[in-house]
Amino acid sequence: MVWQEWLFLGCLGFGLIYSLFVLFAADISLHGFGHVEIPLLHPLMWVSGTAAFGGLGFLLWRFSSFSPGIVYLLAGLGGVAVAIASYFLWIQPMKNAEASTGYSMNDLQGKIGDVLVTVPATGYGEVLIPMVNGVTNHIAASFEQETIVEGVRIVVVEVKENVLYVVPYQ
């Protein structure tokens, strides 16, 4: 093999090994790069472009009759195209998909839910509140000191000491 083939295979191998490393140890490998906001500096974009450059360059070098300059040009353009495509098809959508499943009790104020266990006029019942990642149930008391029976739709008016104060939803 000539040195150009080794160059292309080295780029391809580096990209594949780094991709596998990221797949199995993403928290470790991207620790320093996790909050890079400049798209051109995102490491996964560079790695995908490098791997594409290597793979395309090796195939063109080995199986085409193009001159070396054309092979480098086409491999470079292919690497840039794959890097850009990886940003818009993989990196950007994954960044937008990141969401926290945590919430504060104060976030429940104004939420609409259902009574799971009847809320007596002067006591506690249980309500079910739908959230982004499922449903959550909480201890509830009647805000207006009136009984709210099981199955009634409610709205959370206030949250005090981890108790939801609710009224029937109109």
pLDDT averaged over residues: 85
Order of helices and strands: HHHEEEEE
Q: Give the uncertain stretches in residue-range form.
A: none
Query: Order of strands across the widest beta sheet?
Result: 1-2-3-5-4
The figure for the number of domains is 2
Please report the number of helical segments. Answer: 3
Give me the count of strands. Answer: 5
Largest pleated sheet? 5 strands, mixed, barrel
**Radius of gyration of CA atoms, rounded to a whole number:** 28 Å
Strand content: 15-25%
Structural class: alpha+beta
- Terminal Cα span: 77 Å
How would the global form be characterised? rod-shaped
Please specify the SSE layout and strand pairing:
Blueprint: H1 3-29, H2 43-63, H3 68-97, E1 112-117, E2 125-131, E3 134-142, E4 153-160, E5 163-168
Parallel strand pairs: 3-5
Antiparallel strand pairs: 1-2, 1-4, 2-3, 4-5
Helix pairs in contact: 1-2, 2-3
